[in-house]
User: Fold F-box/kelch-repeat protein At3g23880-like isoform X3 from Arachis duranensis.
Amino acid sequence: MKGTIPDDVDADADAVPRKGKVVTTKPPPILPDELIEEILLRIPARSLVRLRNSVCSSWRTLISSSQFAKDHLRRSMAVDPALTHPRIACYGQTYLYPTIGVFSVRSVMGNPPREPTKVVPYDYEGSFRLIIGSCNGLMCLHDEEGQAMLWNPCTGFTSQPLEIGCLLSICGFGYDHVNDKYKLFAVVKKKSGESVSRMFTFGPNSTWRTIQDFPHKLGDRNYRGSMVDLVGLFGFR
Assistant:
């Protein structure tokens, strides 16, 4: 006589799976890489910097890539046109460390003028105290030892110093979109007193080359600003 199973006992609790039957579970949903990148592109740059060391290696590699930085900048400027408005960077020396402030030209024209928005303190062993120019969120700094470097106030990134070897009288910093390089144009004075025009290129292997002399008398004035690349022609603004 077959026994009956009490109502309070689960009939499947001790049941043995039938031979050949495979028990499967659904894997967690996986987002496509394209969707992940689109989500990360919408996160503000400062938040990405804070998250960079807390995410998986694949995300960290994506966030740190130069192409992602370009896409993020392009999207940010499209979403917030105010990012394209002219800005002024000011340098201030305090007792403990130098600081750099940024404010828009519009705020200067206001009544009363607004205080500049302070960015992270510039923290470096050297003394890069001269702001040559800025482009795409990067600042080009120059020191009294004849070196130049790139600094990103948002991420804290600093490039390897570029040896110039002298002070600059006429110079400009800009982006060469054809070769995808940041460049520094400078008219430098040699020890002999001769002036030559050079183009410095930032990168893992920073280089410089002598170009055609700048068609302008140096005099005693200093000319520093943003270099504009107009299909092989360079100007200042």
Observations:
- Residues 226-233 have pLDDT under 50 and may be disordered.
